[in-house]
Design a protein that fits this description.
Layout (H helix, E strand, L loop, with lengths): L2 E6 L7 H8 L5 E4 L8 E5 L2 E5 L12 E4 L4 E2 L1 H11 L6 H4 E4 L3 E2 L2 H14 L11 H9 L14 H16 L9 H16 L2 E3 L1 H10 L4 E4 L23 H8 L6 E9 L1 E4 L12 H9 L12 E6 H11 L3 E5 L9 E10 L4 E2 L9 E10 L16 H14 L3 E5 L7 E3 L1
Parallel strand pairs: 1-10, 1-11, 2-5, 2-10, 5-7, 6-8, 7-9, 11-14, 13-15, 14-18
Antiparallel strand pairs: 3-4, 12-13, 15-16, 15-17, 18-19
Helix pairs in contact: 2-7, 4-5, 4-6
The chain binds guanosine-5'-diphosphate, 6-O-phosphoryl inosine monophosphate and magnesium ion (MG).
């Protein structure tokens, strides 16, 4: 069998957690392949809101095995908190959660470096979630990192201390920031016991054996394509490959094993943190999207910047990821809008008009939009595309014809089943 992929096509927070939770019972295994606790994936289980940061969103489906891949970076402290939250709901969590021995560990000093380096950047700051993601991936590629498998080595303490020492030297270059290392280190050390009790193994053999046995795998992306370290709005990005290609390096599965790629996008756009965002709405309409969509970060609580759906950006993401199916979420947020719009051209600083993503997205002077009449009715509870108001269908048809990609899923609420499937 094959690996299907579900990933974000915008700047994250597209509703990946909800859709993975819905789809998970059609799969044998659900895997996270990149990112770390910078992610916040929201799910509603029996009306209870849960936010997952490291644990895959398939964990609430019986019999589904969940894997944390080698491409992920894991903070034992946040991971232990997540376990404590989920344990009362999922009784067999330890049987169904597997961690790669090659997953890199986020140390308290990684978070300290993140904070100090962001602080030193001043106005140029990335708007990082300050979870230590960048510094941890730096140590991975710099070949200094510690991995989950190292927790079982007899010299782990020595390995930890020498990496911490390197970090303390590195931090000296930045202006002072407040960070209680003693306290953070104590929490971190205490949470290692929980991590050591988990199933830690070679997930690459595990997953490839599953594929050979005819089992199905769903790879769950974190962040979004525009935050990809190579293809996003660099340097205002995260430090991993968030795209389909990241599935292969983040799990050790071959490109030929990938079948469907479900790309998920909101019916509008949001971004949290700094960096260019051409279709951003800085006046009332943006505020209205934020209010109606409750656009506040799942990890940091920060207000998300809001704007219209950007077709240039979306087509770029579809191209890079090889999207076979689109999932449009939060359609209900615009239920009461008189007009909804789609950005379909950029006017650059030099007055050139383009519909391709430029090298420097901040050189977009203004955008051209196509306007659509709003549907001005509640679409919640509608269970087929055909039953949607004509104006809503016009908007969705335009997305399909501009992107040349089929919308297979339409989400109209946060609940697991608030979804139209085509
Ligand atoms: P993720 O990071 O991609 O998993 O997304 P987040 O959980 O960070 O943010 C998405 C937010 O939108 C969450 O609060 C979800 O509960 C909510 N949500 C998901 N789909 C829908 C939808 O179709 N309509 C509405 N109104 N909310 C949704
Ligand atoms: P999910 O999986 C939205 C953003 C941060 C910042 C930039 C770099 O919930 O969609 P980092 O902490 O990686 O150094 O931050 O990336 N960012 C996200 N934005 N959703 C996320 O994850 C994000 N993870 C990181 O706001 O701008
Ligand atoms: Mg999120």
């Amino acid at each position: 069998m094959a690996v299907d992929v579900l990933l974000g096509l915008q700047w994250g927070d597209e509703g990946k957690g909800k859709i993975v939770d819905y789809l998970a019972n059609k799969y044998d295994v659900v895997c996270r392949f990149q990112g770390g606790p910078n992610a916040g994936h929201t799910l509603y289980i029996n009306d209870k809101k849960l936010v997952l940061h490291t644990i895959p969103s398939g964990v609430f489906r019986e019999n589904v095995i969940n894997v944390i891949g080698n491409g992920v970076v894991l903070d034992p402290t946040t991971f232990a908190k997540e376990l404590d939250n989920i344990n009362p709901i999922v009784s067999d969590l330890h049987d169904r959660l597997i961690i790669s021995e090659k997953t890199h560990l986020i140390l308290p000093t990684h978070r300290w470096i993140d904070l100090a380096s962001e602080n030193a950047k001043g106005k140029q700051k990335i708007g990082s979630t300050l979870r230590g993601i960048g510094p941890c991936y730096m140590d991975k590629t710099g070949r200094n990192g510690l991995r989950v498998g190292d927790l079982f080595r007899s010299n782990f303490e020595h390995l930890y201390k020498s990496l911490k020492e390197k970090h303390l030297q590195f931090i000296k270059q930045f202006p002072d920031v407040e960070f209680d290392l003693k306290d953070q280190e104590e929490n971190w050390m205490n949470s290692l016991a929980q991590l050591r009790q988990m199933q830690v193994k070679d997930i690459t053999y595990f997953l490839n054996k599953k594929l050979n046995e005819g089992k199905s795998i769903l790879a769950e992306g974190a962040q979004g394509t525009m935050l990809d370290v190579d293809f996003g709005t660099y340097p205002y990005v995260t430090s991993s490959n968030t795209i389909t290609a990241g599935v292969c390096t983040g799990l050790g599965v071959a490109p030929s094993s990938i079948n469907k790629v479900i790309g998920i996008a909101k019916a509008y756009c949001t971004r949290v943190g700094s960096g260019p965002f051409p279709s951003e709405l800085l006046e009332e309409t943006g505020d209205r999207l934020r209010k109606e969509g409750n656009e506040f970060g799942s990890t940091t609580g920060r207000a998300r910047r809001c704007g219209w759906l950007d077709m240039i950006q979306l087509k770029y993401s579809i191209m890079i990821n090889g999207v076979t199916d689109l999932c449009i979420t939060k359609m209900d947020v615009m239920n009461n809008f008189e007009t909804v719009s789609i950005t379909d051209a950029y006017v650059m600083d030099n007055n050139e008009v383009t519909n391709e993503l430029p090298y420097d997205l901040s050189a977009v002077k203004e955008v051209k939009n196509q306007d659509f009449q709003g549907w001005q009715s509640n679409i919640q509870g509608i269970n087929s595309f055909e039953a949607l108001p004509e104006q809503a269908r016009n908007f969705l048809n335009a997305i399909e014809s501009l992107s040349k990609t089929k919308i297979s899923y339409l989400s109209y609420g946060p609940g697991r089943d608030e979804l139209i499937i085509r």
